[in-house]
Amino acid sequence: MMQKQSLKNILNLMSSLIEHPHPREKRIVFANAGKPDYTPDIQTYLKHGGYQEAKKAFTMSPEAIVNEVKAAHLRGRGGAAFPTGVKWGFIRRDDGKAHYLCVNGDESEPGTFKDRYILHRDPHQLLEGIIITSFALNIHLAYIYVRCEFRHAKRIVEKAIEEAYENGFLGKNIFGSGFDLDVYFHEGAGAYICGEETSLLESLEGKRPYPRIKPPYFPAVLGLYQSPTIVNNVETICHIKHILRLGAAEYAAMGSEGDGGTRVLCVSGDVMKPGPYEMAVGSVTLGELIYDICGGLRPGRSLKAVIPGGSSSKVLRANEIFKINVKLEDGTMIEKEVPLLDMVMDATSLAAAGSMIGSGGVIVMDDSRSMLWALNNLNQFYAHESCGQCTPCREGVLWMSKLSTRMLREGAQESDSKMLHKIADNIAGRTICAFGEAASWPTQSFIDKFPEEFSFDEQNFSRKH
Amino acid sequence: MNSSSLPQAENIPLALLTEIEKAITHYPVSRRSALLPLLHLWQNHFGFIDQSAIDWIACKLELNSIAVLEVVTFYPWFRQKAPGRTIIRVCRTLSCAMAGSYELHQKLCHGVGIDPSAHGNHEMPTSADGKFSIEFVECLASCGSAPVCLLNDDLLERVSLDDAEAIIEKYS
Ligand SMILES: Cc1cc2nc3c(=O)[nH]c(=O)nc-3n(C[C@H](O)[C@H](O)[C@H](O)COP(=O)(O)O)c2cc1C
Ligand code: SF4
Ligand code: FES
């Protein structure tokens, strides 16, 4: 019987987590991918209204498309929540240079699981987004960069690309518009750092993927092959067609101020029903997400900590109360006290709480978890994934990992937590890429928020693990 | 495979050559960009990347061999020694660890006689009979169905300790 169970798993390339939308979800990007009988071929996509928006795009002016994306207040879903329209605005269509699009499907921020569903189950939606984006920004060559651990993505996406060529949606003179576009799939090779946009570009150029320093190497200025390049996350690009379909105003209105549309929140850890939930931005609080949508914690457990936006975002403590500026009806701003569970899950609120929405990866931890143990797990991740280019990062993350491992195994010495914090302080802000911050924030926030678990005399609990 | 003693570059099948030529066309601006695809095609076929492969690919892409070697050694996915017949990569990162991936990894390792502490360093811990390689990897982007592992090319989700036994039995 057990054998049957694993065989079933093997055949069922990915879980059915996505096939059971919660009534409070607002599915746009996952609308097709979540249907149990939906298949990734072009006929199915066309039957579901596919490529209508790409056709429509060619009846619009490129500037109008960029303006729609700006007005839709779409923010990047890859981690930094940067306004997509603003990023696109950095590209000058007529500067005479080649422009490139690189779609970021590296999806390796711990806690994040959304892009794979699109790549495996609805690849044409991504291609439609790529077509619209490329037309808007005068791009004729696009790459989809996907981590190679998605072993089936290459076959599925390349099949979709082939179908799109056959239908005249890619290649020369697409949709009879006179516009040419080539799209290729490119596989990574197991390195987290390749999700960082400039590292991704180096990787695509066939080099060691050492991130480039900004300035001057902003991708939109000096990107792939030193040409203006847009790097956007898979989910971000999928939203583009829905902005054209709904219109910027309706799309923006679905979300919070300055943060439009929907966003996939990926919940994992100690909840009864983990999964990816596509929610209208700002439509849920953290408490509703955990208790209503994810079915709460395991019986008899209480909430201890939440990492709200992928492992690199700062951890939040269950009983924390935040002071947040909120806008009243008449436009005046007041400061309000908001307990953690009432925190709205959007970019602005989480930034105000000192953390971030990041990649939407929400990791929930209950009172059975040791914070030292959890931090040590993350420290080992960062120690493994540093590219090694900058000294503070290369040496610091390894040192942090060794120190937290020793604290866990042998008990903390009096100076350990201070030392650990100090190492993190000396990495953040002193490195070439944002991995430095990503690796320091967990250590800084875990120690600041849960000092008792890192102290000299509070080691009995931790050592249990 | 008795070809393992022969330099890989002396034994390239036509189908692989065709795929290599096709992959290079995907990078009209720079041939060097085809390096990762070529390494993938090569490793998918031969199981690992030997010195002759590094020289051959370098020559193909008009690079120095060191430019290929430094890429091979950077990425955890590439290896320079033959792995076991069945490769299991267990996710080690937080959500999976919370769901018991360390126990899973240990059970799998013990089940096939691999030392669970022997992970990392571009050499996959492999069982003495060459049937299994088992390693820890970082987050596989399926944290909602933790613990997960890659069994060769397939993602297994919510893998229980009983599943581990079934996997070993099936692939032994
Ligand atoms: C260390 C590090 C890892 C990252 N990993 C990813 C990733 O796996 N996927 C992703 O889309 N963005 C990742 N990013 C963010 C990218 O650098 C970039 O901001 C993003 O792809 C831009 O797309 P967006 O504006 O659509 O979000 C990472 C950033 C850093 C610093
Ligand atoms: S901060 Fe770390 S990951 Fe980023 S470039 Fe420096 S060493 Fe590499
Ligand atoms: S932590 Fe294991 S898949 Fe993300």
Q: Can you list the ligands bound to this structure?
A: flavin mononucleotide, iron/sulfur cluster, FE2/S2 (inorganic) cluster
How large a portion of the residues of chain A is in β-strands, by DSSP E? 15-25%
- Beta-strand residue percentage of chain B: 5-15%
User: In whole angstroms, how far apart are the ends of chain B?
Assistant: 18 Å
**Count of discrete alpha- or pi-helical segments spanning 4 or more residues of chain B:** 7
Arrangement of strands in the largest sheet of chain A? 3-4-2-1-5
Question: What is the 3D shape of chain B?
Answer: elongated
What's the CATH class label of the largest domain in chain B?
Answer: Alpha Beta
CATH fold-level name of the largest domain in chain A: Rossmann fold
Largest two-chain interface: A-B, 66 and 58 residues
**Low-pLDDT regions of chain A:** 1-13
Average residue pLDDT of chain A: 94
Alpha carbon gyration radius of chain B:
18 Å
Helix content, binned percent of chain B: 40-55%
Query: What is the name of the CATH architecture of the largest domain in chain A?
Result: 3-Layer(aba) Sandwich
* CATH C-level category of the largest domain in chain A: Alpha Beta
Keywords:
heterodimer, A: 465 residues, Rossmann fold, Ubiquitin-like (UB roll), de novo design (two linked rop proteins), five-stranded mixed β-sheet, globular, B: 172 residues, alpha+beta, Glutaredoxin, 2 domains, four-stranded mixed β-sheet, 7 helices, 42% helix, binds iron/sulfur cluster
